[in-house]
Every structure is written in C-alpha cells, then in structure tokens.
Write a structure and sequence with these properties.
It is built from 13 helices and 13 strands. It has one domain: Alpha-Beta Complex (Spore Coat Polysaccharide Biosynthesis Protein SpsA, Chain A). The longest helix is centred in the C-terminal third of the chain and has 13 residues. 35% of the residues lie in helices and 23% in strands. Strand 9 and strand 10 form a beta hairpin. By secondary structure, it is of the alpha/beta class. Strands 5-4-1-6-11-8-12-10-9 form a nine-stranded mixed β-sheet. The protein has a two-stranded antiparallel ribbon with strand order 2-3. Strands 7-13 form a two-stranded antiparallel sheet. The structure holds 1-O-phosphono-alpha-D-glucopyranose. 1-O-phosphono-alpha-D-glucopyranose binds next to strand 11 and helix 9.
Length: 303
C-alpha cells in the first residue's frame, strides 16, 4: 500500500534577483498575483491535494512569510468591528491551523537540492510533496491533486511535466519519456539545464514533485552540478536507479512567475478570471488602447 503524503515542502529562500528592486526587502514569494501572494497559491494547491503539514525552507529577510501564515489579531478585530465578515472569512480560510506549519532556514544559497535537504529532519522517513512557488498553475483540480492520483496508482516518485519550445529547455530540468499516458508515464532520464542539442526532449520538470525520503541521503552527498549548485535533479537521476519516477503531463495552464513575462501574464489571466474584477479590468485595458501601445513603444522602452 502507498504511504499517504501528508507533508509539503516549499523552498522560499531564493534571492529573487530577477525582480530587483521589488525584492530587495520583500521576498519574491510575497509578490502578488492580483491580491494573493504567490506562496498562498502554492499552499492552497497543496491543501486541495490533502496536505496537512506545510514546511517552509526560508532564508534571511523572509520573516514576513512566517507572519503571513500567522493570525493577525489587530487586523481581525478591526475587520470584525467594521462588519467586514467576508474579508475576515477569507483571511481565516487561507491559514493553516496551529501547529501545521514549520519553518527552517537554508543558511547558504547552495541550490534547490540543498534547500530540500534542509527539510530532512522535519519531513522524517515519509514521502513528501515539494512545490516551487515560482510556478503557478491555474486549473481544477490543481496539479498536485492530479499528481496524487498518479501516486495512488504507481507509488514511488512523481513529477509534474510540461512541454516548452525546444529553445527554452536550458532554463529547466528536462526528462526523457518512456511508456504510459499523459496522466502517468515512466520517466527514463533527467538532466538539469541541458544545452538544447543535448536535451532528451522538450518536456520539463515543472516545479511540483512527490518524493520518497530516500532522496535526502543522496542529497547529503550530492556534488555541485549545473550553475555550481547542488541540484535536486541530479539526486533524482541517481534515485531513479532504485525507484520508479512517474511523469504527469498535467491538465491546466501554467505561469513561470520567476520571469517577468510569466508573472505579468499570470496577473492578467487571474484578473480576467475574477468576476469582481473582470469587467472593470477589460474596460481599463481598452482605455489603454492596446493597439496604440503595441504599435508604438514608448521612448523609454525603445532606448
Ligand atoms: C528548478 C529546477 C528545475 C525545474 C525548475 C522549474 O530550477 O532545478 O529542474 O525545471 O525549477 O521551475 P530553477 O528555476 O530553480 O533554476
């Protein structure tokens, strides 16, 4: 029988250099898509998939993430006094219950593999989900839920897979695809950030994983890989010698919010999906007169 996945790990120690100066004092995971921070979307996705314990691997100046997942009595009292019950309910719904969050620090930026390893004592000898909050998924059910269904079938390890234009593979981990359907196929190979001509396919690892705890021992000894960092993909490639990996090409839309274009597109897509915002936003976009904006870049943009 497969062991239930109850814990999710969220690596949130990254410096967010691509979003400076916004991320000088603000963690990139707190950047908002419409009115919710990125990290909240990942937590919601995990909760929908049945996760009960939320583990955050943080770093310096990320304390505000811990505050975000705590109660804020002053705010709640004020909302209550003003009769703003909807806002209050929303706040409470977002919060994992007491004792269901853990925070640990990655003391040095040594890479994703090292960040995951930092969670080893909290996760213990259990399978766990891993969600990179940069990747935002829109769709029902959420990606992790789709992966849980594949996990029930196959046990072992599961990774979310997405197809990208071949020229973009070198920004990601890339897999080789073996037998099976889109909702659960055998992964035959993994390479972190390959040159396009060396990539086994254009199928990328897209920021969601269900992993067995044996990964931690491999991460402990993992030499540095692509970019001089301790890479999770390299340890997974070794684990593949003894355990199966299943790929799930999920149904839904994804946004790589680690890039400015992905982040801005996510904001537009989520805003247009909100009944309370959609009409006003469309009207505002029209007033921007998109045709003109697109035809003629402003002087500053052209320089
Ligand atoms: C990480 C992983 C990579 C994966 C990507 C998804 O890379 O190492 O395998 O494809 O996330 O976003 P990073 O974005 O941290 O460079």
């Amino acid at each position: 029988m497969t062991k239930r996945v109850r814990t999710a790990v969220f690596p949130v120690a990254g410096l967010g250099t691509r979003f400076l100066p916004a991320t000088k004092a603000l963690p990139k995971e707190m950047l908002t898509v419409v009115d919710r921070p990125l990290i909240q979307y990942a937590v919601d996705e995990a909760r929908e998939a049945g996760i009960e314990h939320f583990v955050f691997v943080t770093g310096r100046s990320k304390g505000v993430i811990e505050d975000h997942f705590d109660r804020q009595f002053e705010l709640e009292t004020t909302l209550e006094l003003r009769g703003k019950t909807r806002a209050l309910e929303e706040l409470r719904k977002d919060l994992p219950s007491a004792g269901r969050t853990s925070f640990t620090r990655q003391q040095e930026p040594l890479g994703l593999g090292h960040a995951v390893w930092c969670a080893r004592d909290i996760v213990g000898d259990n399978p766990f989900a891993l969600l990179l909050p940069d990747m935002l998924f829109k769709g029902k059910p959420g990606v992790l839920k789709q992966m849980m269904d594949a996990y029930e079938e196959s046990a072992g390890n599961v990774i979310a897979i997405e197809e990208v234009p071949h020229a973009e593979v070198s920004s990601y981990g890339v897999v080789g695809r073996g037998a099976g359907a889109d909702n659960g196929f055998r992964v035959t190979q993994m390479v972190e950030k390959p040159r396009p001509e060396e990539a086994p396919s254009n199928l990328i690892i897209s920021g969601r994983y269900i992993l067995q705890p044996e990964i931690f021992a491999l991460l402990a000894d993992q030499p540095r890989g692509a970019g001089g960092e301790i890479q999770l993909t390299d340890a997974m490639q070794t684990l593949m010698n003894t355990q199966p990996f299943t790929g799930v090409k999920y149904v839904g839309q994804s946004f790589d919010c680690g890039s400015k274009i992905g982040f801005l597109t996510a904001n537009v897509a989520y805003a247009l999906d909100r009944p309370d915002i959609r009409d006003g936003f469309l009207a505002a976009l029209e007033r921007l007169s998109l045709d003109e904006v697109m035809a003629e870049p402003t002087k500053a943009a052209a320089e």
